[in-house]
Design goal:
Number of domains of chain A: 3
Structural class of chain A: alpha/beta
Radius of gyration of chain B: 18 Å
Number of domains of chain B: 1
Strand order of the largest sheet of chain B: 1-2-3-4-5-6-7-8
CATH topology of the largest domain in chain A: Rossmann fold
CATH class of chain B: Alpha Beta
Strand content of chain A: 15-25%
Structural class of chain B: alpha/beta
Distance between the termini of chain A: 24 Å
Strand order of the largest sheet of chain A: 3-2-4-5
Mean pLDDT of chain A: 92
CATH architecture of the largest domain in chain A: 3-Layer(aba) Sandwich
Order of helices and strands of chain A: EHEHHEHHEHEEEHEEHEHHE
Oligomer: heterodimer
CATH topology of chain B: TIM Barrel
CATH architecture of chain B: Alpha-Beta Barrel
Number of strands of chain B: 8
C-alpha cells in the first residue's frame, strides 16, 4: 500500500495561514491503515489546529470529512458540498488523492497535509518498510521475492556491492542489505545459481525514466467495440494481450 | 592484444605489477595533479585516478587522467555508476580514450550519503558488472550498449574491484567470477590488513580457476596513525583491520608511527606476493603519495620494468 506521513504541524499551519474556512479531508484507504490520514488522524489534526490557531489569536473554522478513497472521483463526490463551502481543503490523502481532488474541484485550493513516502507494508506495529519501486518490470522471480530496485540503496541488479557488512547496507546499520537477504533467501530455496547469472542492464523506460505512465485496458473501456469478444477472453489473456502500457 | 596499456603488457609479461592511486584536488588546480604525479612517476606502472571518491566533489577522473597522460604517466580511469547513466558513461569514456587513457576501473561507487552533497540524486543506471560488460562489448564487438556500431572503438584494459572482506563472504569469490565473466581483465582488491582472510578468499578464487583468467592486484595502504587504524577498523563499512594491526600502530612511539605504517604495508606486500594468483599490488596512499617511493623500495619492487 501507499505509506505516508503527516507534515509537521508548523508547516501545515503555515500552509493554512491565509485561509479562514478550512476543510480537512481524510482518506479511508492506505493512509488510514498507516495511521497518517484516516478519520481518526483528521480529528486529531483538526483539534490541534483549532487549538494552535486559537492560541495564536487567529481562530479558524476548521471542518472535517473523510471519504472511502480520495483517488476515485465517485468517492469524493460525497463531500462536494463541504468542499465548496470551504476556502481551502487540506487533504490528508496521498499525493494521488490530493491530485484527484484538485482535478475534480478545479476552482478550489487543495493543499497536501501528508508527505507520501513509499510503497510498502507494516513490518511490525509502528514500523513500515518500502518494498516496491513501481519500476514497471518486475524482477522478483529472479531475486527470491526481495526487490533489489526498492530495497538496495543503489538499486543494483548484481549485488551485493563491497559495502555490504553483517547483513547491513553501507549507508546505515539501520538499513538491511537487500542483496545479502537475496543471497540468503536463494540459498534457502536452493536457487543460488540465479545469482551466478549476470543480470543485464535494466530497461528503466517502464518506470519513472520513461516519463508519466498510463495503462489503457481496451477490454475494460465502456466504449470499446466487440464487448462480446472480450467477454470470452480468459483472465490471462486479458492481463497480457488486453492491456497496453503507453506513455501519456 | 585486447588492450594497449603498459599495465596490460606488464601483467601479460608475468612481471609483478605495481599500481598507485592519485586523488584529484577539490579545486580546479592542475598543479596538484602535477605535484602528485611527480612523486609517483617511476615507482608505479599506472595510477588510479579516483572518481569523486566517497562522493566528495573533486576534479574529474578523466580530466586528471588526461593531465597524467601529458606527463608521461599511465592513468587508470576510475568510473563509478553513481553519477552517470549509460549515455554519459559511454560518451565520457569515448572521450577518455581519445585523450589517451588506456585503463579503466569499473566501480559501483560509494553512496552519495557519505559525501558533501548527500541530497543529490544518484543514478545507478548500470551496476559495476554491467559497466564492465558494456565496455567489453564496445571494445571487442565494436558495439554501443544499444547495439549500434562504433567506427573507432575504445580499447580499454578493463578492471574491476572486489572486496574480499565484505559480506556474505561465501559469495565474494563467486561475485569475482561474475566480473570475470563480464569481461574484467584485471582486479584491484579492497585494502588488505587481514592477510589470513585474504588467503582464504584467494583459495576460493583459485578453486574457481579465476586466477588464470584475470590478473589480481592486491590492495594495500600505509596507515598514518593509530587513530586512522581505529577509524578504519570501527567505522568504514567493508574494511577489515585486525586488532593486532591497530596495536602495532599504537605501540610505535609517536615519531615512528608513520614509519610503522609503512612497515606494515611492506609486510602485507611481502605476504600477499607469495600467494599463488596474486599478479601485483595496488598501493593506495591517497593524500600520502610521498609514502609510495619508500614502500616500493622497501618491498623490493624497484626498478619498475620498462615497456
Amino acid at each position: 500500500m501507499i505509506i505516508a506521513q503527516q507534515k509537521p504541524l508548523e508547516e501545515i499551519k503555515g500552509l493554512l495561514a491565509n485561509y479562514q474556512r478550512v476543510l480537512i479531508a481524510g482518506c479511508g484507504t492506505c493512509v488510514t491503515v498507516c495511521f497518517a490520514g484516516g478519520e481518526k488522524e483528521v480529528g486529531i489534526l483538526a483539534s490541534s489546529l483549532r487549538m494552535a490557531f486559537q492560541v495564536d489569536g487567529d481562530p479558524k473554522d476548521i471542518r472535517e470529512a473523510t471519504v472511502q478513497r480520495q483517488c476515485e472521483w465517485e468517492y469524493i463526490e460525497a463531500i462536494a458540498e463541504q468542499v465548496q463551502q470551504a476556502d481551502v481543503v487540506l487533504s490528508l490523502a496521498c499525493g494521488i488523492g490530493v491530485q484527484t481532488m484538485a482535478e475534480r474541484f478545479r476552482g478550489k485550493r487543495l493543499l497536501p497535509g501528508l508527505n507520501t513516502a513509499f510503497l510498502g507494508y507494516p513490518v511490525e506495529q509502528g514500523v513500515w518498510k518500502e518494498n516496491c519501486a513501481a519500476c514497471g518490470n518486475c524482477v522478483l522471480d529472479k531475486t527470491g521475492g526481495i526487490c533489489p530496485i526498492a530495497r538496495c540503496s543503489k538499486s543494483l541488479l548484481n549485488g551485493p556491492c563491497g559495502g555490504s557488512h553483517d547483513g547491513k547496507c553501507e549507508i546505515s546499520d539501520d538499513v538491511e542489505c537487500a542483496w545479502d537477504q537475496i543471497y540468503q533467501r536463494l540459498k534457502e530455496l536452493g536457487l543460488l545459481d540465479n545469482m551466478l547469472e549476470i543480470m543485464p542492464p535494466k530497461d528503466w523506460s517502464t518506470g519513472r525514466a520513461g516519463g508519466p505512465k498510463r495503462i489503457v485496458r481496451e477490454d475494460l473501456r465502456p466504449l470499446s467495440m466487440g464487448a462480446g469478444e472480450h467477454l470470452s477472453m480468459g483472465a490471462d489473456e486479458q492481463g497480457s494481450e488486453g492491456s497496453t502500457l503507453a506513455p501519456l | 592484444m585486447k588492450a594497449e596499456s603498459i599495465l596490460s603488457k606488464i601483467l601479460e609479461s608475468g612481471a609483478f605489477a605495481v599500481t598507485g592511486e592519485l586523488g584529484p584536488p577539490k579545486s580546479a588546480d592542475a598543479e596538484v595533479i602535477k605535484r602528485k604525479a611527480a612523486i609517483l612517476k617511476g615507482y608505479v606502472d599506472a595510477v588510479n585516478i579516483t572518481d569523486n571518491q566517497t562522493s566528495i566533489v573533486r576534479m574529474s577522473s578523466i580530466a586528471s587522467g588526461a593531465i597524467l597522460v601529458q606527463l608521461g604517466l599511465e592513468p587508470i580511469i576510475q568510473m563509478t555508476c553513481r553519477d552517470r547513466n549509460r549515455i554519459a558513461m559511454q560518451s565520457d569514456l569515448l572521450g577518455a580514450y581519445a585523450l589517451g587513457a588506456r585503463n579503466l576501473l569499473c566501480l559501483t561507487g560509494d553512496h552519495q550519503v557519505f559525501g558533501n552533497h548527500p541530497q543529490a540524486k544518484n543514478v545507478f543506471d548500470l551496476d559495476s558488472i554491467q559497466l564492465v560488460q558494456m565496455m567489453r562489448a564496445m571494445r571487442d564487438e565494436k558495439k554501443f550498449q544499444c547495439g549500434e556500431d562504433i567506427a573507432l572503438e575504445p580499447r580499454f584494459f578493463l578492471g574491476a574491484a572486489e572486496n574480499p572482506f565484505a559480506d556474505p563472504f561465501d559469495f565474494r569469490a563467486l561475485r569475482l567470477a561474475k566480473k570475470v565473466k563480464a569481461g574484467a581483465d584485471f582486479i584491484q582488491t579492497q585494502i588488505i590488513y587481514n592477510v589470513p582472510k585474504f588467503v582464504e578468499w584467494m583459495k576460493m578464487v583459485r578453486e574457481l580457476g579465476l586466477h588464470q583468467q584475470v590478473k589480481i592486484l592486491a590492495g594495500v595502504s600505509p596507515l598514518k596513525s593509530p587513530a586512522v587504524a581505529r577509524y578504519m577498523r570501527d567505522k568504514v563499512p567493508g574494511m577489515d583491520v585486525p586488532d593486532e594491526i591497530v596495536e602495532r600502530m599504537e605501540r610505535a612511539p609517536k615519531e615512528e608511527r608513520k614509519a610503522q605504517g609503512i612497515q606494515i604495508c611492506v609486510d602485507v606486500i611481502n605476504q600477499v606476493r607469495e600467494i599463488q594468483g596474486v599478479a601485483g599490488v595496488h598501493i593506495m596512499a591517497v593524500e600520502w603519495e610521498e609514502a609510495v617511493p619508500e614502500i616500493t623500495k622497501k618491498a623490493g619492487l624497484l626498478p619498475r620494468p620498462a615497456f
